[in-house]
Amino acid sequence: MQVVAVIGAGFTGILTAAWLLRLPTPQPLRIVLIERLARQAGGVAYGTTCRQHILNVPAGRMSAYTHDPDHFLRWAQLVHPSFKGGSFLPRALYGNYLRDLLEDAVAHAAPGHQLDRITGEVQHIDVPPATGPATIRLSDGRSLEARAVVLAVGNCPPRDPPIADPSFYSRPRYRRDPWHPSIVENLDPAQPIMLIGTGLTMYDIAILLSQAGHAGPIHAISRRGFTPQAHRTSAHAPHGYPRPADIDTWPATALGTFKALRALVRKAAGERVDWREVVTAIRADTPALWQRWDRRSREQFLRHLRAFWETHRHRAAPEAAATIQRLRSSGQLHIHAGRVINIEDTGTAARVTFQPRGAGPVRHIDAQRIINCTGPESDPRLADNPLIRSLVTSGHITADPLALGIQTTPEGLAIDRAGRPVPWLSIVGPFRKGSLWENTAVPELRGETEQLARRLASELAAASG
Ligand SMILES: Cc1cc2nc3c(=O)[nH]c(=O)nc-3n(C[C@H](O)[C@H](O)[C@H](O)COP(=O)(O)OP(=O)(O)OC[C@H]3O[C@@H](n4cnc5c(N)ncnc54)[C@H](O)[C@@H]3O)c2cc1C
Q: Which CATH class is domain 2-53+90-156+377-464?
């Protein structure tokens, strides 16, 4: 039996395991899915138990399988026949879908294939000698050997924002991990909270606070104070706008690409098509556009266009956007545009000092808790994950040149410190952002997990032959 270890049971780990189970190989496979969270629950995104945490993609576009676009919708309609392609459903429900999908893959596995699930945190991987198996070591002392390892560890907590005195970050008033289950526990419901970041993670936390009955002010701050655009409400997943026929000849620069995109949005508006459809129409081409840009262009994009792109591309579900609007209109949620200069613990509160965008004197806000909502960390050197750090130290993984993720070959193999592909170590999911840019949501990740599983199955078949 050949062993494949899949580390992480979020969307990408579950889908990779499900595909491997179904693909026949000459020697049976033992797929070991290892997840550190006791509830093998679909990862950071779909492990939430909050019913107000809503998918930010309509149900009709959330199928886990490229070849079967209505797979999720059909499953959801068994739960409730009123669900439509345009419905924005709870993320917890999607977690149940992933669990069912894995059970189904086990029930229909190729002859001899088996799935073993382990709850535990992988802390270290011993390097295989030549083509031998890798030894995977868990924090509780257990270990196992695997012929191939898939790193599906997904979204790591955000990095600490730079401030004058970072010693604040060791204080209990600060929470680096916005997805920790206790994130809104033990709060005084009347006292202010400060959220750093104004994107979708901030939306999640503000919604959690509101649901928990928090009545005090909620402050949120980011450099520009941009918040995500909202999806439109419609019964069906919106009809697609056609892929632009000339997209392969768009200028190979960030600025040129955005000019072409703006021109297309204007043309679509003339045809009474919403800009959202245009953004969706170029979605499948985003990795190719990104790969055409040189390093300077990518840096320009990250510096000047990223915030604008992300708020238009990663939109909020209508229900989430409405809750945020309500919190803003009632005066409870305040969005600030500015740069955090320092945070200090005064003994009774965390005092945030920030420079408002544009002119004006610095401002101070006192809060009982500071929650970092700046978005997942993808630089492996800064990741709050002992396994990632150990692989960086051993040189088996490296950061890509812009530190957006882990450097990989086009097939998804890790590239080591010496610039060689690591034949036993595949990377899947958000950590491949450096080479693919948009590699974070289900519509992209489903194809990637299928391709990875097919490549692994054929490599294992070749190795056993
Ligand atoms: C809050 C949030 C909401 C999102 N909502 C949507 C959405 O509505 N629609 C959409 O298309 N996309 C959404 N996304 C994008 C999301 O990144 C992908 O859809 C997808 O969930 C990524 O899955 P993943 O398995 O790669 O990562 P993750 O979901 O982060 O899963 C990784 C798993 O690996 C485990 N792990 C990490 N290290 C170890 C270790 N050393 N040992 C053992 N286990 C380990 C973690 O505990 C975790 O369960 C959302 C992302 C976030 C953060």
A: alpha beta
